[in-house]
Amino acid sequence: MDSAEVSTAVNEPLDLVKLSLSERVFIKLRGDRTVQGVLHAYDAHMNLILSDVEETITLVDVGDDGAVSNVRSVARNMEMLFVRGDAVIMVRPLLLYLCISNIMTKISSCFAQISPIR
């Protein structure tokens, strides 16, 4: 193989991340945060550099009795973002995430239309 070629072989988990370079990715982070953006660089610690980023934070309001009173999402956009690797839970190509979400929505709607057997 020529040294200038990029290998598409997957020998270790980080090779999957390498295949997503210059592609839009979906990243789940600690603290009920998600990030979507174009992956430019990563390292062995899963530190990531992204551009054209949308961050979504899920906020849960809890009352004095411990019951959830309100759940809301707040989104913000950024040109560039450095994500510290210890906050990363999952990295997935965005196209795959959108396809899976679409399929799950269709499956849920199919089950909702089925009447229970009596």
From TrEMBL:
<keyword id="KW-0687">Ribonucleoprotein</keyword>
<dbReference type="InterPro" id="IPR001163">
    <property type="entry name" value="Sm_dom_euk/arc"/>
</dbReference>
<dbReference type="Pfam" id="PF01423">
    <property type="entry name" value="LSM"/>
</dbReference>
<keyword id="KW-0539">Nucleus</keyword>
<dbReference type="GO" id="GO:0046540">
    <property type="term" value="C:U4/U6 x U5 tri-snRNP complex"/>
</dbReference>
<dbReference type="GO" id="GO:0005681">
    <property type="term" value="C:spliceosomal complex"/>
</dbReference>
<comment type="subunit">
    <text>LSm subunits form a heteromer with a doughnut shape.</text>
</comment>
<dbReference type="InterPro" id="IPR047575">
    <property type="entry name" value="Sm"/>
</dbReference>
<keyword id="KW-0507">mRNA processing</keyword>
<protein>
    <recommendedName>
        <fullName>LSM complex subunit LSM3</fullName>
    </recommendedName>
</protein>
<feature type="domain" description="Sm">
    <location>
        <begin position="12"/>
        <end position="97"/>
    </location>
</feature>
<comment type="function">
    <text>Binds specifically to the 3'-terminal U-tract of U6 snRNA.</text>
</comment>
<keyword id="KW-0694">RNA-binding</keyword>
<dbReference type="InterPro" id="IPR040002">
    <property type="entry name" value="Sm-like_LSM3"/>
</dbReference>
<comment type="similarity">
    <text>Belongs to the snRNP Sm proteins family.</text>
</comment>
<keyword id="KW-0508">mRNA splicing</keyword>
<dbReference type="InterPro" id="IPR010920">
    <property type="entry name" value="LSM_dom_sf"/>
</dbReference>
<keyword id="KW-0747">Spliceosome</keyword>
<dbReference type="InterPro" id="IPR034105">
    <property type="entry name" value="Lsm3"/>
</dbReference>
<dbReference type="GO" id="GO:0000398">
    <property type="term" value="P:mRNA splicing, via spliceosome"/>
</dbReference>
<dbReference type="GO" id="GO:0003723">
    <property type="term" value="F:RNA binding"/>
</dbReference>
<dbReference type="GO" id="GO:0005688">
    <property type="term" value="C:U6 snRNP"/>
</dbReference>
